[in-house]
């Protein structure tokens, strides 16, 4: 079993992308972080890629209007994105899901930047994502304690028939990032370079690949 790694592209660094390519199965193109150069970056990719234009309320840096944010995501469909990340709180999420699914898969995400909800509340977020039409549900919380890893990873057993990527951010949540694919996630996210993570606690592609190599998975 080869565990899948999604390399997160946060800037137009061709050397870093080339170095990471042999170790990843797909990339995430962070439109909000890369800026206006993102179409050129995406156009040079030979691996499948996820288009993400993260709104500020969900931890992103997009400064434009909501309509222009979504326009960039639609542009990504024309450029060959394999998947588009839509936040669950997107006001027009229903319309966007329908539009995305005409050309690509739809990942519906939700990020809790403050903590990890109780094990009783977490499943309701997944159910909302599924009801919205998610092909893949991405639920990311913030780990304030090591026990939060257990709570977020427990979701995989509750949704065995769904495609789910669930883990916790922060130093206390690193374990959940590593274990997510072992629990059933189709992939986990990793930074291309040290010092350039897109979220707290994110390991690099090379670090994650080495961990899996040593685990022989």
UniProtKB/TrEMBL annotation:
Catalytic activity: 3-dehydroquinate = 3-dehydroshikimate + H2O
Active site: residue positions: 111 (proton donor/acceptor), 138 (schiff-base intermediate with substrate)
Binding site for 3-dehydroquinate: 28-30, 54, 177, 198, 202
Pathway entry: Metabolic intermediate biosynthesis; chorismate biosynthesis; chorismate from D-erythrose 4-phosphate and phosphoenolpyruvate: step 3/7
Gene3D superfamilies: Aldolase class I (3.20.20.70)
Alphabetical list of Pfam families matching this protein: DHquinase_I
Top EC class of this enzyme: lyase
Coiled-coil regions listed in the entry: none
EC numbers, comma separated: 4.2.1.10
GO BP term, pick one: chorismate biosynthetic process
Family, similarity comment: Belongs to the type-I 3-dehydroquinase family.
Name under which the protein is recorded: 3-dehydroquinate dehydratase
Source organism (scientific name): Dehalogenimonas formicexedens
